[in-house]
Structure formats: structure tokens, C-alpha cells
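haha ok so turns out i had the wrong file open the whole time. this is the CORRECT one, sorry everyone. sequence first:
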Amino acid sequence: MIKKFAYIIGLAVFLMLFLSSTCFALSPSSDTIYEGIDVSDWQGNINYSEVKASGIDIVYIKASQGTNITDPYFKTNYNNAKMNDLKVGLYHFLTARTEEEAIEEAEYFSSVISGTSPDCKLAMDFENFGNLTKDEINNISTAFLEKVKALTNKDVVIYSDASNARNIFDSKLANSYPLWIAEYDVSSPSSNVNWNSWVGFQYTDTGTISGIRGFVDRDKFTDDILLGSNDVITTTPNNKNKIEYYTVRSGNTLSRIASEFGTTVNEIAGLNSIRNVNLIYPGEVLKIDVTRNLDEIQSNVYETNHIVYTIKRGDTLTAIANRFGISIESIVRLNNIKNPNLIYAGERLRINN
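then structure:
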């Protein structure tokens, strides 16, 4: 009798777990599923040709954070993903603590991505809330999303883990914006009272794929993540300084770095409190103000369809030219290289496609 009772109890528990994992899972918004990844500077240099060959359809790229941080690999990731016919989405990491700050971040994000033509809805990544109340979180999110949509004329999507989607974000947001949900080690994300479907499902943060060293987030997307058109975003740049972060590599000098970013040695030294401009060290992270040359950089990256190649240790201009099937002279001319025998690991070159 006891064994029979235990068997019945065990069967009931099994059925409850089975039902909760199947009947109450969040469903994709459509039957069409795309394989995807999302990337930032954490992935470093990516070989998008190999990524494409591995079966990836969509790549979401981090563009910006806060009101003055542009992901240092944003333009390279965007350009090279586009060159390899991947569908591209862009996201912003939100840090605002007030609605006013949210609007400033929306303006900054929109300014950073001006000149791009994303294929997928723009995404808000808001996950670190500090001491904010639930109402404050939802009001800040609404302010950011509405402003981005107004500035870019592009639809937007909310990225959230399963817990925040269920317990923090409210039904008003869910009724207005689709969900890109993160939940790991499950075949389908768990349901919540706000959304009844997902357009994106990040199912692991330890994915591996050819073309990327180390781990990368893996995703599935439905066709509802796609924009109706990939028209170029045209927004008026805001007047806040735009800061990029550069990691000093062996052989770098401040003058070479300044030349690469279209700034001056004195400006870099002042921004980073460098007393001796002849002393910088490999591994040191420098803040670079790219406000003045942002439009020029975007023109080079987005309008002329150049490939951006990061020089690796052991590279020569001859080897790079042979790899891309172009002449050394075209690389020298396009990048204003004074001495073709002096190139440095970590330096970025524009390559005619």
C-alpha cells in the first residue's frame, strides 16, 4: 500500500513538472525561426565569414551604453556582419536612473547608430536596476523606448531575462513592445502573465561557434524580430561627447593612436591624465573622444562599404593584400600609411571590398 501511494505521488509530481515545462512554456511568435548570436566587445575580433558559414542568420550588436560609451567594436562588427550578408540588429545597454536620463540615453543611442541600416528591431537591454522601484523601472523603460522609436522611426524590442519579464516589466510595456527573452538550459522559456510569445530567445551564454574565440550568446529569433525595411537611420547627433575605449597594444604610440582616431596627442593625454606622453603600456585602456570625427568615421564605414580589418601579430601588408585580392598600394592609399613596412598588431585597416 505504501509503495503504491509513493508511486502515485511520484507520478503526480512528474506530470506536474512535465505539464509546467510544456503546456506553460512561452511560445515563439511565428513558426519561422532564425539562428542568431549577440555580440559586444567581449568577443573581440570576429570572423563573420565563418560565422555565416556556421548557419547563423542574425547577429545583434551592442552599439552603446549610458550617455557617452560606444562599444569599441561596434562599427567593425556592424560593417563586417553586413559585408557577409547577415541580418543585423543593434542594442543599447540602459543605465538610466530617471526618465530624463533615459531620454538622454535614447538620444545618444540614436546618434551612435545614425547612418546604419539595421534589419532587425532596435533593442533595449535594461537589467541592472539598483534601488529603483518597479514603477520607476517601467517609466524609465517607456521613456527610452518611445524616444528611440521617435528619433529613428524604427520599431523597438525589450531584451529581458525570464524573471524580470515576469516580475518587473508590466503589461503596458508588454502590450506595446515584443520580447527578446533570456532563459538558459531550457528548451522553451517559461511563461509569464505579461507576454504570451517571444520574438527572440537567448538560450545560452556559453555558446561556441566557428569564427568567435571563447563563448558567445546563442539565440533563436522569429521573423517578427525583423523590420519592415532597412532604410538608413538619420538622426541629428546630440551635443554630448562620444567616448570610445581603446586598449593599448605592443608597439602603439599616442601619436599613432591619435592619428587613427582623428584626434590629438594632447587631447588623449588630457582625457586620461597622462603626464608623460611617451609612456603608455600594453594593456592600458584609454578613453578617446571621437566627437569631432564621428560623422567621418560613419561615412567611411557605412557609405563606402569598406571591410574593417584588425591587424594580427605577424601580418604584413603583402599578406593582407593577397588575402583580400587587392594591391598593397590601395591599402596604403586608403589608410594614409606613410611607411608600408611599419604596421602594428591591433591597428585597424580599411579594405576596399
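Confidence is low (pLDDT under 50) at residues 17-23, 293-305.
again sry for the mixup
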